[in-house]
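Quick review question:
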């Protein structure tokens, strides 16, 4: 039992909705707002491939479009032995909206690893760079 169990479960539920007929790589994410609300996201692929959206970005856009701004953790869940970390584009977006939050990686076997965004995304380009 950890403080992230709820978030990991939300990511697992979101993964059920993954639309991944091209890669068959199903990803779930869950983003926790400081308001307490949790926003799930899944990857949504497209026949063009390039228009695919990752689970993390879907969760972020859902939350931001609902008016949320402060976030304190994000979870990512896949069915792989090597836990999946967010891609580069998602790291940029997580940094933009969440900053140095814990990123909880997990899989269907229940393995969990917690990383900090500052370590996943050193030397960011952000508002302070402008
Ligand atoms: N994917 C995610 O949703 N999140 C990640 O962190 C890594 C990759 C998706 C994109 C695509 O639908 C599939 O996984 C294979 O790259």
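Suggested answer, residue by residue:
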């Amino acid at each position: 039992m950890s403080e992230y169990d709820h978030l990991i479960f939300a990511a697992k539920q979101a993964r059920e909705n993954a639309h991944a007929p091209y890669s068959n790589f199903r990803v779930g994410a869950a983003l926790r707002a400081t308001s307490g609300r949790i926003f799930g996201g899944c990857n949504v692929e497209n026949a063009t491939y390039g228009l695919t959206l990752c689970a993390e970005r879907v969760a972020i856009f859902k939350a931001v479009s609902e008016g949320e701004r402060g976030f304190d953790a994000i979870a990512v869940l896949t069915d792989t032995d090597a836990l999946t970390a967010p891609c580069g584009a998602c790291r940029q977006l997580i940094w933009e909206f969440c900053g140095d939050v814990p990123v909880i990686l997990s899989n269907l076997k229940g393995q969990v690893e917690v990383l900090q965004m500052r370590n996943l995304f050193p030397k960011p380009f952000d508002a302070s760079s402008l």
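Why it works: The chain has one domain: 5-122. The helical segments are 5-15, 55-65, 88-98, 117-120.
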